[in-house]
Amino acid sequence: MGGMGEGGRAGGAPVAGRAGYLVCLGYDAWAPERVVESLARLGYRWCEWNTGHYVPGDAGSLRRLKALTEAGGLGISELIAQQDYVTDDDQAWEARVALTETAIRDAAAVGLDTVNVLSGPNLWEPGAKRVPGAMSTAAAWERVWRAFDRIVPLAEREGIGLAFEACWGTLCDDYFTTADLLGRYDSPAFGINLDPSHYVLRRQPIDWVIERWGERIRHVHMKDVIGEPGMEGDTFMFPLIGEGRTDWPAFFRALADVGYQGALSVEFESYRYYDQVLGGDPEAAARLGIQTLAAVWDRFGAGQEVGHG
Q1: Which of 59, 93, 132, 243 is 20 to 30 A away from residue 100, measured at CA?
Q2: pTM of the predicted model as reported, rounded to 2 decimal places
Q3: CATH class for the domain made up of 14-301
């Protein structure tokens, strides 16, 4: 794909062709073709779709989404299936596990290799169970273990890499709780979606985290954070890349040291800025995302690629 997008710079694609975007916010109301055209024009080369962007269980639906994405000049870096397994509703739990299994099978059927998952509870969603409180810690972990007892072997059989995301509010919200879950299975299929903001929120040095995950890192989200653990929008927030506490020089050095060369995917969650400054314009958010990503890359990441010493 030639030329230079709106978010680009002289000398080729921004971020060495590694810039990705998690399709979210107002883009969800756009036709997929329009989303792809917008992201490609801005200079992105990768995107992430989720199970709401196609018909789960209809591999043909995902195959068409993949084809139009690639025709527009983008690749799909991962399929997101972030279900909340922390629930005492047996029917809801089964439906969420089954949807994850369906996403894994669909991804395998169309040649995608990575599915993003987490543990729950998803406190940003209505009805999520607080732990402890609405559910005991023991009961919550039992539900998560049962879910992954099914999900991990299926991913192994289907040749899919799970990219597990430590996330605020969930049982696995830092390095140690996530390592405990992954260690239960010790599966080559069970890897990491590294979102630095969640580790930084827990005051865990991001280079230390990256060094420990090493080759298990399958995918990377680009997101910053400021504040203290609690509730998003109250005790902490995800500001623009570069405004928070993330040590970006250490982040890029560590990624290069462990050999990660994949997509660097912007997850835009500066919600108040999106509403009050950008007026709910998803393309404006994506443009700002690639501009801030390219800025930290140009200052701290360029030259840190594997093999550059």
Answers
A1: 132
A2: 0.94
A3: alpha beta
Residue 232 gets which letter from DSSP? B
Identify which of 257, 271, 272, 265 has the alpha carbon closest to the alpha carbon of residue 290.
Answer: 265
Rounded Cα–Cα distance for residues 185 and 162 (Å):
12
- C-alpha 95/C-alpha 77 separation (Å) is 25
Q: Is residue 174 a contact partner of residue 212, using CB atoms and an 8 Å limit?
A: no
| Cis, bond preceding 121 (omega within 30 deg of 0) | yes
In the three-class reduction of DSSP (H, G, I as helix; E, B as strand; rest coil), residue 258 is classed as coil
CA dist 23 and 231 (Å) reads: 23
Phi, psi of 96 (to 5 degrees): -70, -40
Per-residue burial over 94-112, b if 16 or more Cβ lie within 10 Å, else e, is eebbeebbbbbbbbbebeb
Q: How far is CA 227 from CA 42, 206, 249, in A?
A: 30, 16, 20
Give the domain ranges of the chain.
14-301
pLDDT in tens, 86-104: 999 999 999 999 999 999 9
The pLDDT tens digits for 28-68 are: 999 999 999 999 999 999 999 999 999 999 999 999 999 99
